[in-house]
Amino acid sequence: MGLLTLLVQIAVILFAARAIGWVFRRIQQPQVMGEMVAGILLGPSLLGWLAPDISASLFPPESLGALHALSQIGLLLFMFLVGLELDPALLRGRGRAALTTSHASIVLPFLLGAMLALYLYPRYSDASVPFAQFALFMGAAMSITAFPVLARILTERNLLSTKVGAVTIACAAVDDVTAWCILAGVLALVRTGAVGAELFMTLASSAIYVAAMIWGVRLALRKLEAYYARRGRITQNMVALVLLLMLASAWTTEWLGIHALFGAFLIGAVMPKEPGFVHDLSEKMEDVTVVLLLPLFFAYTGLRTRIGMLDEAALWLDCGLVILVAIGGKLGGSTAAARLSGLSWRESGALGILMNTRGLMELVILTIGLDLGVISPVVFVMMVLMALVTTFMTTPLLELVYPLRLIRQETLVTDEVARNEAVLIPVALPSFGPDLLAAARAILPEEGARFYALHLLRSEDRSIADTTEVKPFEQEALAPLLAAAAATGTQVRPLTFVSRSFGSDIAEVARAKRARFILLGWHKPVLGENALGGPVQDVMTLADADVIAYVARRDPQWSRVLVPFAEGRHDRAALELAARLAGRSQVTALHVVEPEHGNDEAVASERATVAAIGNGRLELKVVESDEPQAAMIAEARSGYDLIVIGASEEWGLEPRLFGSRHEDLAESTSASLMIVRRGDARQ
Amino acid sequence: MFESQWSEVAGVKRFAALYAVLVGVPVLALFGILRLGTGIEPPPSVGGTWRIAVDASGVRSEIPGEAGVAAFSIAQSGRRLEVTVGSETRPAGGRIDGRRVWAEHRRDGVVQWRLEASLTGADTLAGEWKMMSQAGVSTIPFEARREGSSAASSRGH
Question: Which residues of chain B approach chain A closer than 8 Å at the C-beta?
Answer without folding.
Answer: 11, 15, 18-19, 22-23, 26-27, 29-30, 33-34, 36-38, 40-47, 75-80, 82, 87, 89-90, 150-155, 157
